[in-house]
Amino acid sequence: MALSLALIILLCLLVEWAFSKLGLPGLLGMIVVGALLGPSVLNLLDPSILLVGSDLRLMALIVILLRSGFKLSKKSLNLVGKNALLLGFLPATFEASVIFALGPMFLPISRMEAAIMGCVLAAVSPAVVVPYMIKFIEEGRGTKKSIPTMVLAGSSLDDVTVIVAYSVLIGMYSGGKVNIAWKLAGIPLSILSGILVGIVFGLILVGLFERFDPRATKRTLVVLSLAILLVDFGNFLGTFGIPYAPLISVMTIGFVILEKRERMAHEISSKLAKIWVFAQILLFSLVGSQVNFRAALDAGLKGVALIFIALIGRSVGTYLCTFGAGLTQKERLFVVLSYIPKATVQAAIGAAPLAVMAAHGMDTRPGEIILAMAVMSIVLTAPLGAWVISWAGKALLVQEKSS
After folding, report:
1. Residues 382, 188, 228, 292: what is their CA dihedral angle, to the nearest 10 degrees?
2. Which of 34, 43, 56, 46 is CA-nearest to residue 2?
3. Of 135, 87, 76, 130, nearest to 255 (Cα)?
4. Phi/psi of residue 58, each to 5°?
């Protein structure tokens, strides 16, 4: 595994440099490296790194969500809170509805299977979106109206909504007993419980850091370790059906420390930025390694068409979320374009319906189609979305004084 890690790091750093010279996003190069080294192409990665790939991706995602929490000021959230909340469910609802309505016309799947596929495809990727929003906040782009903050918060809530909806539908499809009312209530309950847990642990950390005054590096390690424990605790609660969004807790910890001790927050954020240099290589290269080009080809031209038509529906929902935020047409376009990329959730649960169908002795062909569409959505939208967001931030947002 050590050799595979070394190969990934060296190639990703080299490709990131080359892509930056071409004016392309570095993370796009990292995804390409992972895809080429992965099982679908050259198959040069040690199987052991693929086995722990999901854990490594999760740890990298925790790092970037912690960084996002340290950029969420109370003033910014007060300014865009309503719009961020709408971004948390309206774009995904529009996209999933389009797939639900048109899926059976484009692909050999039932209406219920189309609904499940809609939930898998409808999640935006915080792994792609959040790093850019943090970059724009640090550069002072769109910060007067807190536009990056709005997208950052909305994209994190989006995943909670989609995953809960998916769990309801896959439970109904597999014949399990699902309390739909409790599951739907679980969306706001998950968000609220995540915020409350984050506030409690954020205050505890502030108190401990004030009392024992550890170095910034040790504070960062404590915060990161606690965040990982909270995510694992969330998985434990999930087995009992208790609504809790651990990634929201992770972001809230950073928010609390920023509000209570700003200087301390900036010190920890600076250390996390250094960790992110390594974490992003793991995250995007391992996301790329998950891409199965054969499965993507199975989606066919009709699948490609459905993905882009659904993106149009998603864009309509995203545009509606910007009303009342006092944005110009360029700024609204930026928000719409920021909601294009998909990768994180699709890589995580794209194969889950297939596994459920196989476990229950069902016809697995619909599951194979859903997996193919999930892979195709990553192939088409992650690189495109990364490039578009990078361009849009510079072309469409007004640059204020850098933070």
Report:
1. -30
2. 46
3. 76
4. -65, -45
The rounded distance, in Å, linking the Cα atoms of 265 and 247 is 18
Q: Is 402 domain-assigned? A: no
339 is in which domain, residue-wise?
Answer: 25-396
Q: What is the pTM of this model?
A: 0.84
User: Number of structural domains, the chain?
Assistant: 1
Domain membership of residue 385 (yes or no) is yes
Long-range CB contacts for residues 218-223, cutoff 8 Å, separation at least 24: 219/264, 219/267, 219/268, 219/271, 220/268, 220/271, 220/272, 220/275, 223/66, 223/253, 223/254, 223/257, 223/268
Inside any domain, residue 11: no
pLDDT by residue for the chain (403 residues), tens digit each?
889 999 999 999 999 999 888 877 888 888 889 889 988 888 999 888 888 888 888 888 899 889 989 988 888 888 888 899 999 899 999 999 999 999 999 999 999 999 999 999 998 988 889 999 999 999 999 999 999 999 998 988 888 888 888 888 888 888 766 666 777 777 788 889 999 999 999 999 999 999 999 999 999 999 999 999 999 998 888 778 788 888 889 999 999 999 999 999 999 999 999 999 999 898 888 888 877 777 777 778 899 999 999 999 999 999 999 998 899 999 999 999 999 998 878 877 887 888 889 888 888 888 888 988 988 888 889 889 999 999 999 999 998 865 4
* 397 within 8 A of 142, measured Cβ to Cβ: yes
